[in-house]
Amino acid sequence: MFLRQSTSQAIRFGPFLDDTDFKTAETALTIAQADMQLSKDGAAFAQKNAAGNATHDTDGWYSTTLDATDTGTVGELIMQVVVAGALPVWVRYWVVEEAVYDNVYGAAAVGPAVAGDAMDLVANAVDATAIATGAIDADALAADAITAAKIANGAIDAATFAAGAIDATAIGTGAIDADAIATDAITAAKIAANAIGSSELADGAITAAKFGAGAIDAAAIATNAIDADALATDAVNEVRDAVLNVVTGTADAGSTASTIVDAERTEAVTDYWKHGVVEMTSGANVGQLRRVTAFNITTDTLTVAPAFKSAVAAGDTYRIVRVLADGLRPITEGNEATDVAADGDVGADVQTWLDAAVNALVSGRVDASVGAMAAAVLTAAAIATDAIDNTKIAAGAITSSEAPNLDAAVTTRATPAQVNTEVADVLKVDTVTLPGQIAPTATPTMETIFAFLYKAFRNRKTQTASQWNLYDDAGTTIDQKAPVSDDGTTAEKSEIVTGP
């Protein structure tokens, strides 16, 4: 590995293997600064200058950093690391001068010469002043020396020419005319998307006077040439905002959950925005819609209802649209007072009061939540006889996932035969795992009781003068045990505890 002289460099070294089995990677070594010894260009080993311990990377490989002092000497750099518990590790590097390193490995490296190179030239070695006037002309170039096939795609583009290199004075009169352009040389497919936009056209470049009479008519516009895809989203929004009198704004300090203060709201008619709809477009309430119940022209304050879920903060943005009694329509320019005064009370728009889209109608009715019903509205007496039967419930609507205590095959009430089948299945088919090395609890389930009884009946048991033992299935490990004693009058066996 080559290192740049006098430059800090992160390195990795390893792997560190266990010094007993010679193969296990050591991943938790403490490799201190003093453990990392460097020999610079044949000099004696000494600890590296950069402070800090090495850090484990993976599979016994560690990383550390060499600073400018560590890499300050050109030539071979050897680092050895000897730590307890691992085999020694050493690694060789070559430190090269900065200019050499940058020329070969730098981001803008020229790189070494390769086969076929005629010569390596420094930047600007050959420029206009190095070439005699007229040295390169048509006679100096062999026939077909320069053809389209000799020029790579994109080799000559706008960046190839200096600013102003090709202008009107550089092109002879009549050099480019209809005869000089091949048929179909310029088509829609040859022009990149968005290649010609408003920024490419000078002000006034396209006017009515530039078009002949009838140049653009219905016949000149292809069917479906102008559709939704041909209109930018912003274009549609601009038309919508203009027609509906939509404005945007930014809340000032002093706004609350039910008010928006905005000094830019300079409309001079009281309640100008009453019955309008406000949508928050940023902040904690983004996406929430609320109705405007009042507009104070003195304090530039919009009041909304119901309140937003959070207080409106300074800097939160919003947009607002006027809603008049006869629907969405703009205020007449110069006739604001008359329009507002004539505006009656507007019925509530359901979606205005919600934070999400209105629920879809069901058979023409609006869905209602349980919380929207008064107590005792839905009772047994309110449901007609047979209003809910098996014909009203779709097949598979109720399965074991909706009723986990019912067998998936039970489609009505369980019959005695079905109950008997389930019980027989439990007794004859289902199995249990015998208890392992645990102490019997004081509150066991029936399954645990039967399991311990069967284990005590089946498994190996031994008893000494002081202990009774119950073994595991293999008969080698004591799972349960109990102290025993016999004084010649009373034989006693104490409570069973866990083994071994």
Labels describing this entry:
Immunoglobulin-like; flat; about 500 residues; alpha+beta
Walk me through what this model shows.
The chain is α+β, with helices and mostly antiparallel strands. Helix content is 11%, strand content 18%. The strands form four sheets. A six-stranded antiparallel sheet has the order 9-14-11-12-13-10, with no helix packed on it. The protein has a five-stranded mixed sheet with strand order 1-8-7-3-4. Strands 15, 16, 17, 18 and 19 form a five-stranded antiparallel sheet that branches. Mean pLDDT is 81; it is low at 325-337 and 339-359. Among the domains are: 2-105, Immunoglobulin-like (Sandwich); 236-353, no CATH class; 446-498, no CATH class. Strand 15 and strand 16 (467-471) form a beta hairpin. The protein is built from five helices and 19 strands. The chain is flat, with a radius of gyration of 45 Å.
